[in-house]
Each structure stands twice: as structure tokens, then as C-alpha cells.
Write a structure and sequence with these properties.
heterodimer, A: alpha/beta, Glutaredoxin, 7 domains, 5-stranded mixed sheet, 23 helices, 30 strands, B: 8-stranded mixed sheet, 6-stranded antiparallel sheet, 20% strand, globular, TXNDC16_N (chain A)
Chain lengths: 837, 627
């Protein structure tokens, strides 16, 4: 197995080698492009429409990458659009600046020339795309913990932190990852890219493409936190690799993390590969001969120093233990051999250690060492010196540079895409002048109130225009209001004309649903396109829908709505004139967009109520996705607010799934959360297990009866809601095994209780546990944070800087100093101040 | 007898009853909660706010129309406040930054541009505009009421001001808002000052200055306006005052010489016959030259107009003589100082020294003190524009300029329209218990709101370093109070009616840098946000206090600062476009500063980070709603 890998690695992959021989770049014609495409091969094709110096430069790089990529089964080619008019891509404008990757006969991904501009970036990005499924990403410490947990006893993890994409380092990593993922017979590891902490700025030579990120921004992100055990040094800007030894360690380890080794050499394909190979080497080998006669390490470890420790029969166990401890520390730097003293070992007793460097002709050096640290220094010092030098070179840039890196992910992504931000002008603009006329024109106008400089506004503008596109041709008028321009409209100042139907806008962005002659409805959901589209779609029918025939009722309850299956609530009243109808109608108004509401009166209402065994007034509710309607009697004289909470309670699933979207509404119920965290199901068995767990939770609700009403029993799927991972971590201080059941958000305090992790989750024992919690006999497993979410960075203290550079500038005057009134004059204060007004 | 006589008498009688349409005035006991003295821009501006709040008020004006000052001044009939109609923006608030003549109202179109589209409008446009403002808003102005006497009395209900007009009719007011402007010409007393003509009465016809040597006292805008007008006819124009000329574009003070008036600087420096000189005016003496010359030919001398010589008081031999203006040749500087710059006699001397507040109508019980600055020409006021010793008497408009004399725009329409609004808010809180208008925000929205204000608000922009927005921090919420009078910050709670919580407050101020730099030279602007505190041009500054500063701290604030040293300060770097909206240089540093003030991470997050697995994939992610 290894020789094959090695053969691959011995290829000149350094990126600096310029080949002169025949190129691997294929120039395709229409026919052979189509053949190649249908052969299912992976193709990386550029459709050349233009000739420009930039493009020519790029083609040279593309040609070089063809050689490299062919080893990974990727055929690199170009189609000259000028030679023959080509279908599709040649005609597309965006293809001028895009290279396409085809897999399995289909377009897989397009790469902008901003991203793929040289050999390194091409190879790294293409492999990056191909390995998308194979490589996992770590964003937070909890992600890592979960991943380590999953790998325990099964796999090891190579964890790579790449400071910027499209670089030599990134390429080396991807090439190694490819080898690991596709060429090894047993897939024992996963390479995990650890890129989230950085700016994904790309290194880019000047003169290519249009976008040169400000120099100071190139991979200069200050890392906002560190992930132990692989703490990413705050000041370090270079890529790093760790090997997490998870396979040999199951749960019994004291630390939550797998033991890890950091690669100390600079990252290159070769160094990375030999590092990973070294990780495979036995930790300690035991020999019974003299170090001088021990064979030098065999391939692939031939470049690794050997460290010999001597062991006496009397202290055999201790010696092995010590050697193992040292070997852990020397992992990746040297191989540790334990030499059992025997007649064959000639080394004088005074020496207790020896080492041999890999260089040809080097001899074994013997020494007497008192501590492991001494030995360690032998191999770590030179490396550290190198590192120091490197860092010194890097220090040329002043310290504040990392301050300029955007640390707000929305601001950052909007900034990154600033050339491709959606154009607000393509949407209808509401202004102070056209507001009333525009709103009067359509039955529903959706208005996004935004500020052009707000990153969140811009991000939402993008999902908003998506929704607008999807709703094109419908009754809905999608519009935007630029509040930096129409400040009086956003402040709801009518200036005399008809009153503005909304309160002044004080939060940006805000989405309002406007209907002629009605007051505006504020959208309170998530700002993504999907959620917005759903809300708008469901807002279109009247609320409530007035039903008068049996068919109408049936279709109201059963009909799908676009592709959404909204929750439905049907009010049943004796007559239209019933006092409750007005309240119900009001409640329906505020449910609009979330719940479809209908109103049924008279004989038909009586009939439906009778069928469901309730008396009028009543409500029939059908939760989203549920099959059967539930009926409940409504209080005779309820306010709209009471009706709302009544309907809300009726719609609530007995054991709902908790998502980011519904968390606020769940918390607002003021009940403690009995929350089950389940992991992503990897197979059918996992799925069945999760279903069984949910069944137990339903039983908890049923068995508990009225007593359980003080709790909201719910579950969180870490696959659907990955954010739950860090939530769970922060509840308990560490990542518990899944499934995990916790009791939290109790009205009585901020304690978090964890159901005993090793006990099967059974309804009866959960109830007993809850009882114990109530009795105070269970101790809390964690506390909810006090909502403290500290500032992201240290204060950039202008006062301190002023004090340093000009101490008098910001100092309060002493009381005896004369306080001069009036402003400063120019030039300096005059003896005869004299001016006119 | 003329048969028409009875009719005439009848007409007169009818006319007389119409003289007193209001019975309040007829019985001589007009009582009002608010009296506004003067229907100029500041009086009408206050009238608008009082009228909108439905208060019992009257505006008293001695002339027959509003803004009568502008019927005469500026003498050469060109307003130098800009009337920029095209700004590329529809934002009404923002556009007021570039409209220096209009008053504030809720009518989008009640702006000076309806009357004149000139960048520097003719002076006649202004009273027309004011009249339009008064009529369209239906303000209660009583014209032809010339208040000659103002006194204060103590009454059971509190202090009252009694204003007596030319008919000895009294107006009794709980609150007196003096908006009478400045119109008494300022004079400097020196030997021969009686020989000087005043700006208020000179001829504005350049032909009257043909071939004359003219000396102008003063180097402000009226002096230069006069010089500019006559320089095409006069033989030479010299300008004399104690200080070198101060250019408004250098001092950022619009009361200094505006470029629109400064032609004479050009002709002076390009060696035409004009010139500027500096001598304190109270040190000079102007003498009328007696033609003692004799004619060699014995021919009869031509009768010349009198000539005037400038000399220094110390050279006068007969200082004690009242009639010192008739000087002999020996007393002129030409004789005393060989190359004295003003050794040649002048045909005219014109005084253009500005105006002073008319203190004369106030009886001692109601008389505001003289200001410490501006040579005492103005009333001395508290930071909320109340007379220091006259509670219930507020001064508005140009006369209130002692608060920001020579430093901000409070003496000019584009500045005092905002201070008038602030005074009105003080009145509403003090007399009616209505706290200052404020906006309640979620703390996560604070950054957006601050940026919005910074990029559009006109009040703090015009009244830089005088008015500022106060943000009261309350944990997850905050209260945004606009345009508070900064110097009154120690009294914030009682003046505004808003309490300051333990979370402290942020004050947003627009300010210029205090360093003297070459305003057109290299390195005049800073672009690095980390050195924003060195910004020279107008830029936003945020002051964070954990509690209100005290009066003492305010008094001892660092020299040149509008506020005392705060707990933390943030300067937003000056911007060429005066637009503060760039992600790296403006927004992120502001956010980080605010995070420290509220001790909370204020970033926004995608709610579904895993939806954006790789940075190469397009980021169509869900954005979580900021709550």
C-alpha cells in the first residue's frame, strides 16, 4: 500500500517545477468534449471566449495544473470558443471568468477566476471540491469534540488549519487528503479542514483578475479562540496540522479530547505525508541489541532520528512506561526504541540514553540524561528556532493589522461578496412619494426596510430578492425601502397625507406586510429566503378564510399550500354575529402567515362540532404535518389574546422538535424545557433508536399527565440544528454522549440537570428522575450562563493612546487653571478679540 | 358743508375699532404662557414649535412683516448662507445639512428653495420666505407691537414678565422668549469716531465711491462685502481692525470671512492698491485734515471734501480737547512715522463692526447680564439658553450666540433652528412634564441607529460640538435622545426628564480636530481608523460615561473639548465624503466600541453556520433575526 502512495508523492508536486514536455492540457472540440463528458470522467474545463493578457497568464497556470491534476483523475482541458461556436458554455457571459468542473457527465461546480488563478489554487480548489464529502469542517470546539467522540476507538483524525485558501499549503493538504481518502485500502482516517477561524482570503498575485484584497487582510485574522488540545496560537498565522489519536482511545480517557500531536515542520505535501506516516509508526519498539547495531529505520521512516532508552530487567515496567511517555512527546520528531540491557548491549552503564540522526554516516551518540525534557530539547530546539525566525520575519507588519479583519460573519460574507451584492434597484422602490399609491395597487405588498450600509440588511436583501424572483407573476408586490434615503417614510411621518400604516421603523432590516387600508403586519420569523417565502405564501389567503360549504371545509383542512403544509385552525361559531367571531378574526390576523385560519358558522359548524364531540364555540386545529384534527371547546367570551394562546397550545405538538426558529416561542411559554438531544442518524438502526426515544418522551408526557404541564418536553436533532451542539456543550461544560436528556430553563433558577448518561431513557425512570430533581435530591450538572456575552475584542482605547502620545490633550483641567469661555479662535487667542457677526 | 364728511367720520370710527380686534389687547391685560419677542427666523421657529404643541403663545413684532432686519441687511443684498438645492439625496434631514436658510417644520416643501433657487439667495427672498412660513403654518404673530420696556414681577403663580408696547399696553407672560436678534450697530469709541460713517447708512451705490480712498474698520463679512462692492470704483480700499483676517474655511466658523466675500484678499496680495492692516481700534484716532496748505501760485484753492487721517492716540497733542478731530499736520503719522502704512489721508472711513444686543428695553429686574465673550455685546446665558439671572427668560437666535461664540453655528439660522428646538424641549419638560422626545431601541440596533444619525442628522452636524445625541443605556434596550445641549449634560435628567441608569450613557458629538494644520496641504486628512483621534475635519466622536458628569467636571473639561474626559472615547475617522458606512474603517471599530459600552457581543450571526460549509460555496445562508 505505501509504495503506491509514495510513488504518487514523489511526483514533482511542489508547484514550482515548470515542465517543458508535452502538456496534459487537452484542447477539446465540441465532439470530444461531449464524449469526454459522457464518459463520466472528472473534467476541469475552461471555455475560452476572449484573449487577454490576464487570460493568457491564467492559461499558462491551467496548463501546469493539468499535469498535476491528471494524477488525481482529473482531466484538464480548454475549449476554444472562437474556433467553433460551441453550445451552452461558450455562449454564457459568466463563463468568461469561470472554469467548470464536470463530474459524472454533469456540471459539478463553477470556479471564478478570482479563486483559481494559479497552479496551487487550481489544484487545491479542484481537490477541495472533489473531497467535499470526505472532509469535515470544524467550526467550534464543540464540533471538534463531537467529531472526536465519534472517532474514538475507530479512526484517527488529521486536523488541518489552513490560514488561507488556494495556497501551496492548502494544496499540499488537499493532495494528501486525496491520497488518504481514495488510495488507501482501509479508510481509517478523515482529514478535517479547520478553516473557520480565518478569513478565507486568497493569496493572489498582482495583475491577475480584478480583485486584490487589501494586503493587510490576507490571512491576518486574529483567531478568536483556541481549541484545545490543538490550541491555535493567537499570533500564529501559518497553517498547522495536528494528528488526533482517537483510534486507540475509547471513552475511558480522562480528557475529553483525543491525545494529539502537532506537526512541527512547515506544511508541504512531503512533510505532511511523512508526518502522517510517522503517526502510524509504533510508539515504542523494543530491541535487545546495542544501538550501534540497530538497523536504521526502514522506509518510510528513513528520515527520522532514533532515540534509544535503556531498560534494566528490574525496572522493565517503569522503563517502558517512561519510554512511552517520552515517545508521546517525541511523536512526529523521533522514533523511540527501548533497549533491554542484555549481553548483546555493549553500551556502558553510565549512559541511559542515545540517539542517532538520520543523515548518512552519522553515528550513535550516547548521553546521560536526567530528564525527558533534555532529550526533547535535542529534537525540538532547532525547529523552534526556525519558527522564531519565521515569526520575526512576519512581524514586519504593525500589530493592529488583525484588527482590520472583519470578525462578524455576516459583515464578512457581505464584504467578501460586495461585487455581487443584489441590486436593490431591481426591486420596486417604495418612497415617501409613491408609498400610498403603490400599496393601494396590490392586495399584498411586502416591504423590506433596509439601510444600505448594514451588513445584515444586505444579506437579507439577497434572500429577499430570491423570494421576489420566486414570487414573480403572483399577486404579491415585493418592494424595498431605503431608509437612508426615505428617512421620513421610515419614521412614519406622513407629512399631511393619509397616515402611514405602521409604527416608526427602529430595527433594520424590517419586513412589513402591507395591505390596502389595513395596518401593517410585521414579519417576525427568520430572514432566510425559505422562511420568508413560506410566510408570504401563507399570508396570501384571507385570514380567516370564510367557509360555507362542506367541500370548502375539506379542502381547507386537506389542501396543500404550494409545497407547504401549514398548521390550520378552524373557528366554529354559532353565527357570524357571534361575539367570539370578532375576537377570532382578530386572532386570525396575527396568526396570518404562520397558521391558516378558517371560520365556519351556522349549521355546518354545529355539524362539525358534533362530529368532534365538542360544543360551540370551538376550534378545530390541525398541526403542521399532523394527520388528524384535534377539537377543543373555546371559552365563551375569550379575548383575542386568550384565543391566540388557546390555539397555540392546541397546535403545539406533544413533543415538538426544538429549532432555532421556534426557540423564542418555546421559551416564552415560561415552562422548563425537558430537552432531548439526539445525534444524526447514520443508518436505519440509528433512526429506529431515535424514534424509540421520541416514543419514550411522548410516554413521559402521557404518564406524567397534569404534573408534566409545567415542563415542555421537546427534542433537538443535532443534524437539523447543529447549533445545538454548542448549546449542549455550554449547558454541561462538556460534550456528553448522545442521546442526552437535560432539564433546563426552569422558571425557578438557572440550574441545568442531566439525566444520568448511562441509564436507558425510559419514560418511567425519566419521571422518577424528574421527581428527584423536584425534591432537590439531584445535583445540577451545569448552570445557564448569566446571558453574558462579552465584547469580542479588547477595547481599542483611544484615551490610552492620547495619554501616551499627547498627555495634555485629554486631561481634565486642574481647578486653578483659568477656564476660558467661548471657542478657540484662530490664530491663537487674541489680545483684542474682535469680530462681527 | 361737505356732505361726505359724516361718512368719513364713520369710516374713521370703524377703522378705529379694527385697530383693536382682540379684546385681550383692548383692556391692556394680554396674558400668555409664552411671549416671543420678534418675528425673525428664531422667533418664527419657536412659534412653530409652540403652535405644534398647541401652547398659548404670541409672537410680538414691531414691524409690519417678519424678518425686517433682512429688508435692510446685508446692505449689498446677497445672503451668504448656502441654499444648495441639488444634493443627490431625497433625504430631507440630510438635505438640511446643505440648506442654511430654511426653518424646521413638518412640511416637506416649506423651504427657501421655493422662493429662490440661487446658491447665495438675494436678501429679499428671506422675508418673503419667512412670511410664507408664518402664513402656511398659521403662526400667531402680532405685528406693529413695539415693545419698549420689559420688566419682571413676582406673582403668586411665579415670576411674570411684563412687556409694554408703544401704546403703553402690557403683555404679561410666564415665559419670555427673546428672539429680537442683533440690530444695534456696534461701535468702538476712539478719538474721531464721530467722523466715521456706519455700515447701516452708507451708500450702496459704487459710483458714490469713484476715485476715493476708503478706509473700512472691521474685517468681517460686512466689511469685506462693502469692500467688494466698492473696489471697482474706489481708488483704494484699506481695511483696519485689531486682528488679522480669519477665513471661515480655515476656522470652520461661518462668522469669519467667507470666500464669497473675499475678493479684496486677492487684489491685496496681487499688488493692486488695496490692503489690510492690524491696529486695535481703540488705539487709533481719526482726524479731519484742515487744509492749511498754501498755494504757491496764490490761486484760489479748490473746495475739497474733507479728508481723514489715521493716527495713533498717543501722538495727539491735544487729547484732552474734545474737538480733537481737527488735527494739524504735525499730529499725523505721516509726520511722526516715516513709512506708516496709513500715512495718506482717506476720503471716507466706514465702520463695519457688526451689531450688539439691545439691552436698553430691559428694566433691571429683567435684564440679562452681559456675556463674558464677544465684548459683552450679547446676553449671558445658561447652557439651556435661559438668562443667567432671569429665570423664565430665554434668548433665542443670533442673540444667543454667546454660548458658542466663534466656535459653532448658534449665531446663524442653520444652527439656531436646532437650538430653538432644544429650548422648546426644555420648556415642554419643565412646564408641561413632557420628557424630551426619544426613541427606544434594542441595543442590537444601536449601531445601525448611530450610523443613521451620523450619516443624515443635520442638528449635530450644523451645531457641531454644541448639540449631541445622548444614548441612555439600559441593558438590552436603550433610549436615544436627539440633539441635547451638551454643556447642560450634568443637568440632563432634570432638563430632559429621562433618568440615567447604572449602565451609563453614550454621547454622540460631531467635532472638528483641534490641531492647526495646513487646510489645503498634504497630510491634512487621516484615513486610518486607528488614528481617528487626530482627524481634522468634521467627524463623529462618541463619549461613554458610566454616570452623568458633574458641573465641576464639565467646567474643568480638557481644553477645546465639548465634554469632560469620559470613561472611553471613540473617534470615527474623518471621511472625504462625510459618509461613515465602510465595513472596516467605520462600522467594525464602532461596533467594537459599543460592545465595550454595553459589555455585550453585538455581532450578527447566520443562524445556520453549517449551511455555509465551505467558503467557496456561495453563501446563501439564513440570517438570524436580531432580537
Amino acid at each position: 500500500m505505501w509504495p503506491c502512495v509514495a510513488a504518487l508523492l514523489l511526483l514533482p508536486l511542489g508547484g514550482c517545477a515548470r515542465r517543458t514536455g508535452p502538456s496534459a492540457l487537452t484542447e477539446h472540440t465540441a465532439a470530444d468534449f461531449s464524449d469526454a463528458l459522457h464518459s463520466g470522467k472528472t473534467l476541469f474545463i475552461y471555455f475560452q471566449q476572449l484573449v487577454s493578457p490576464t487570460i493568457s497568464l491564467f492559461l499558462v497556470e491551467l496548463e501546469q495544473s493539468a499535469d498535476a491534476l491528471q494524477h488525481y483523475g482529473v482531466l484538464v482541458g480548454k475549449v476554444n470558443c472562437n474556433k467553433e461556436s460551441f453550445h451552452g458554455y461558450c455562449a454564457e457571459e459568466k463563463a468568461v471568468n469561470t472554469v467548470f468542473l464536470f463530474r459524472g457527465g454533469k456540471e459539478f461546480l463553477g470556479f471564478s477566476l478570482d479563486i483559481v488563478f494559479d497552479v496551487n489554487s487550481i489544484v487545491s480548489e479542484v481537490l477541495f471540491a472533489i473531497l467535499r464529502e470526505e472532509i469535515k469542517y470544524v467550526h467550534t470546539e464543540t464540533d471538534l469534540l463531537a467529531m472526536e467522540k465519534a472517532a474514538r476507538g475507530r479512526k484517527d483524525i488529521a486536523l488541518c488549519y489552513v490560514s488561507s485558501l488556494g495556497t501551496q499549503e492548502h494544496r499540499s493538504m488537499m493532495e494528501t487528503a486525496y491520497v488518504l481518502c481514495f488510495t488507501q485500502a482501509t479508510e481509517i482516517r478523515r482529514v478535517i479542514c479547520f478553516t473557520r477561524f480565518t478569513q478565507p482570503w486568497r493569496r493572489k498575485p498582482k495583475g491577475i483578475g480584478h480583485r486584490n484584497p487589501p494586503k493587510k487582510l490576507i490571512h491576518r485574522a486574529r483567531l478568536s479562540f483556541s481549541v484545545s488540545p490543538c490550541s491555535v496560537d493567537e499570533t500564529s498565522r501559518s497553517s498547522q496540522v495536528w494528528f488526533l489519536h482517537c483510534s486507540g482511545h475509547s471513552r475511558s480517557m480522562t480528557s475529553e479530547h483525543c491525545p494529539s500531536t502537532r506537526m512541527s515542520q512547515p506544511l508541504s505535501t512531503l512533510s505532511l505525508h511523512s508526518f502522517l506516516q510517522l503517526m502510524e509508526a509504533p510508539l515504542v519498539s523494543e530491541v535487545y541489541q546495542d544501538p550501534s547495531s540497530v538497523r536504521p529505520p526502514q522506509h518510510p521512516y528513513q528520515d527520522t532520528p532514533q532515540v534509544f532508552l535503556f531498560s534494566r530487567p528490574a525496572t522493565k515496567r517503569e522503563d517502558l512506561y517512561e519510554a512511552t511517555a517520552l515517545a508521546w512527546r517525541l511523536r512526529g520528531l523521533a522514533l523511540v526504541l527501548l533497549v533491554h540491557r542484555s549481553p548483546a548491549v555493549k553500551t556502558p552503564e553510565e549512559y541511559n540514553a542515545a540517539y542517532k540522526l538520520p543523515e548518512k554516516g552519522s553515528v550513535v551518540k550516547y548521553l546521560r540524561s536526567n530528564s525527558a525534557d533534555e532529550l526533547l530539547e535535542l529534537f525540538t530546539n532547532p525547529v523552534e528556532e526556525d519558527e522564531d525566525e519565521e515569526e520575526d520575519e512576519d512581524e514586519e507588519d504593525p500589530e493592529e493589522e488583525p484588527l482590520d479583519a472583519l470578525d462578524d460573519e455576516i459583515a464578512e460574507s457581505v464584504f467578501e461578496n460586495r461585487l455581487n451584492l443584489p441590486d436593490a434597484d431591481s426591486l420596486a422602490q417604495l418612497t415617501s412619494d409613491n408609498f400610498h399609491a403603490t400599496v393601494a395597487q396590490s392586495s399584498l405588498t411586502v416591504a423590506l426596510f433596509y439601510l444600505p450600509w448594514s451588513a445584515v440588511s444586505n444579506a437579507v436583501l439577497s434572500s429577499f430578492s430570491d423570494v421576489a424572483e420566486r414570487l414573480e407573476g403572483s399577486e404579491v408586490q415585493m418592494s424595498v425601502v431605503n431608509c437612508a434615503e426615505w428617512t421620513d417614510l421610515c419614521a412614519a411621518e406622513s407629512g399631511g397625507s393619509p397616515p402611514i400604516p405602521f409604527q416608526p421603523i427602529t430595527a433594520f432590516p424590517t419586513v412589513l406586510l402591507l395591505r390596502p387600508k389595513e395596518s401593517a403586519q410585521r414579519y417576525g420569523g427568520l430572514l432566510g429566503a425559505e422562511a420568508l417565502h413560506r410566510f408570504i405564501t401563507l399570508s396570501q389567503p384571507a385570514s380567516p378564510v370564510l367557509l360555507s360549504t362542506e367541500e370548502e371545509v375539506t379542502s381547507f383542512l386537506l389542501e396543500g399550500f404550494a409545497r407547504y403544509k401549514p398548521a390550520r385552525a378552524l373557528g366554529l361559531f354559532r353565527t357570524r354575529a357571534d361575539a367570539g367571531v370578532r375576537q377570532f378574526t382578530e386572532a386570525a390576523k396575527s396568526l396570518r402567515g404562520e397558521v391558516l385560519t378558517g371560520l365556519l358558522t351556522d349549521g355546518l359548524a354545529e355539524k362539525w362540532a358534533a362530529e368532534h364531540g365538542v360544543r360551540l364555540p370551538a376550534a378545530l386545529v390541525l398541526p403542521s404535518g399532523a394527520k388528524r384534527t384535534r377539537a377543543s371547546a373555546l371559552p365563551a367570551s375569550a379575548s383575542a389574546q386568550e384565543l391566540l394562546s388557546h390555539i397555540g397550545a392546541a397546535l403545539l405538538h406533544p413533543v415538538p422538535e426544538l429549532t432555532v426558529e421556534n426557540l423564542p416561542s418555546f421559551l416564552s411559554l415560561g415552562r422548563g424545557l425537558l430537552l432531548l438531544f439526539v445525534g444524526e442518524e447514520e443508518d436505519e438502526i440509528g433512526h429506529t433508536q431515535n424514534q424509540a426515544l421520541l416514543k419514550e418522551m411522548r410516554d413521559v408526557v402521557e404518564l406524567g399527565g397534569g404534573w408534566m404541564e409545567r415542563y415542555l418536553v421537546c427534542w433537538l436533532h443535532l443534524g437539523h440544528t447543529p447549533a445545538g451542539m454548542s448549546v449542549l456543550g455550554s449547558y454541561l461544560g462538556s460534550m456528553p454522549p448522545l442521546p442526552a436528556l437535560v432539564l433546563t430553563h426552569l422558571p425557578s433558577g438557572s440550574e441545568v440537570y442531566q439525566y444520568p448518561p448511562n441509564t436507558p431513557i425510559l419514560a418511567s425512570s425519566v419521571l422518577q428522575w424528574l421527581q428527584r430533581v423536584e425534591d432537590g435530591t439531584e445535583s445540577a450538572a451545569g448552570m445557564l450562563g448569566g446571558g453574558s456575552w462579552p465584547p469580542t475584542t479588547e477595547l481599542f482605547d483611544f484615551l490610552k493612546i492620547m495619554d501616551m502620545q499627547d498627555p495634555d490633550l485629554s486631561r481634565q483641567r486642574a481647578s486653578e487653571e483659568k477656564v476660558e469661555e467661548g471657542g478657540d479662535s484662530f490664530p491663537a487667542r487674541d489680545k483684542y478679540p474682535h469680530t462681527e457677526l | 358743508m361737505d356732505p361726505s364728511l359724516p361718512y368719513l367720520t364713520l369710516l374713521i370710527l370703524i377703522g378705529c375699532t379694527e385697530c383693536f380686534p382682540d379684546d385681550r389687547q383692548q383692556n391692556g391685560t394680554g396674558r400668555y404662557d409664552y411671549c416671543v419677542l420678534g418675528a425673525g427666523p428664531s422667533g418664527l421657529q419657536m412659534g412653530y414649535f409652540l403652535s405644534r404643541a398647541k401652547r398659548d403663545y404670541v409672537i410680538l413684532e414691531r414691524n409690519s412683516g417678519p424678518g425686517s432686519f433682512f429688508n435692510k441687511y446685508p446692505r449689498h443684498r446677497k445672503l451668504i448662507s448656502i441654499n444648495k438645492i441639488y444634493t443627490g439625496s431625497q433625504n430631507r434631514e440630510f438635505n438640511m445639512r446643505h440648506d442654511w436658510n430654511s426653518l424646521l417644520s413638518d412640511r416637506p416643501n416649506l423651504l427657501l428653495k421655493r422662493v429662490s433657487r440661487d446658491f447665495f439667495p438675494p436678501a429679499d427672498a428671506f422675508p418673503v420666505y419667512l412670511s410664507m412660513f408664518e402664513k402656511e403654518l398659521g403662526l400667531r404673530v402680532r405685528y406693529g407691537v413695539d415693545i419698549g420696556r420689559i420688566g419682571a414681577v413676582r406673582s403668586p403663580e411665579g415670576r411674570r414678565y411684563i412687556l409694554t408696547d408703544q401704546h403703553e399696553l402690557d403683555y404679561t407672560c410666564s415665559v419670555l422668549l427673546v428672539a429680537s436678534g442683533l440690530w444695534v450697530p456696534q461701535r468702538v469709541e476712539f478719538v474721531g469716531s464721530d467722523l466715521v460713517e456706519g455700515y447701516e447708512s452708507i451708500s450702496t451705490d459704487p459710483e458714490d465711491y469713484k476715485d476715493q480712498a476708503v478706509l473700512i474698520l472691521g474685517k468681517g463679512n460686512s466689511a469685506f462685502e462693502t469692500a467688494q462692492s466698492i473696489s471697482g470704483r474706489a481708488k483704494l480700499v484699506h481695511m483696519l481692525s485689531s486682528n488679522p483676517v480669519r477665513l471661515a474655511w480655515q476656522t470652520h466658523y461661518v462668522g469669519d470671512l467667507r470666500a464669497v466675500n473675499n475678493d479684496l484678499l486677492d487684489t491685496y496680495q496681487l499688488k493692486s492698491l488695496d490692503g489690510l492692516a492690524e491696529i486695535p481700534l481703540d488705539k487709533i484716532a481719526i482726524t479731519q485734515l484742515k487744509e492749511q496748505g498754501w498755494s504757491r501760485s496764490g490761486a484760489k484753492k479748490k473746495v475739497n471734501k474733507p479728508k481723514f487721517c489715521v493716527t495713533l492716540k498717543k501722538y495727539l497733542q491735544h487729547q484732552e480737547e474734545k474737538n480733537g478731530s481737527d488735527a494739524r499736520r504735525a499730529e499725523t503719522l505721516e509726520y511722526q512715522l516715516d513709512n506708516f502704512s496709513m500715512r495718506k489721508p482717506y476720503d471716507r472711513v466706514i465702520s463695519c463692526l457688526g451689531f450688539r444686543f439691545n439691552f436698553s428695553i430691559f428694566q433691571s429686574s429683567a435684564r440679562p447680564l452681559n456675556s463674558d465673550n464677544a465684548k459683552g455685546r450679547l446676553p449671558r446665558l445658561t447652557a439651556w439658553y435661559e438668562g443667567d439671572n432671569t429665570p423664565g427668560l430665554f434668548v433665542l437666535g443670533t442673540a444667543a450666540h454667546s454660548r458658542d461664540y466663534r466656535s459653532s453655528a448658534g449665531g446663524f439660522v442653520h444652527g439656531f433652528r436646532y437650538t430653538v428646538r432644544s429650548v422648546h424641549r426644555v420648556l415642554e419638560q419643565r412646564y408641561h412634564g413632557n420628557p424630551w422626545q426619544s426613541t427606544e431601541l434594542s441595543t442590537t440596533q444601536l449601531q445601525s441607529w448611530i450610523l443613521k444619525r451620523i450619516n443624515e442628522a443635520s442638528g449635530p452636524y450644523q451645531m457641531f460640538e454644541v448639540l449631541g445625541d445622548v444614548i441612555l443605556l439600559r441593558g438590552s434596550r436603550c433610549e436615544y435622545v436627539e440633539e441635547f445641549t451638551l454643556q447642560a449634560l450634568p443637568r440632563f435628567s432634570s432638563l430632559s426628564g429621562h433618568e440615567v441608569s447604572k449602565h451609563g450613557l453614550i454621547v454622540l458629538v460631531m467635532q472638528y480636530g483641534k490641531n492647526k494644520v495646513d487646510y489645503l496641504g498634504r497630510g491634512r486628512a487621516d484615513t486610518e481608523w486607528t488614528t481617528a483621534w487626530k482627524s481634522n475635519f468634521l467627524h463623529p466622536v462618541l463619549y461613554y460615561y458610566d454616570k452623568l458628569p458633574t458641573d465641576e467636571e464639565m467646567k474643568l473639561r480638557p481644553p477645546g473639548w465639548p465634554l469632560p474626559r469620559p470613561k472611553a472615547i471613540h473617534h470615527m475617522v474623518e471621511d472625504f465624503l462625510t459618509e461613515w458606512g465602510t465595513p472596516i474603517s467605520h462600522i467594525q471599530p464602532l461596533r467594537r466600541f459599543l460592545e465595550h459600552c454595553v459589555q455585550t457581543d453585538l455581532r450578527a450571526f447566520y443562524n445556520h453556520a453549517s449551511a455555509c460549509p465551505s467558503p467557496t460555496a456561495s453563501r446563501r445562508c439564513f440570517v438570524s433575526r436580531a432580537t
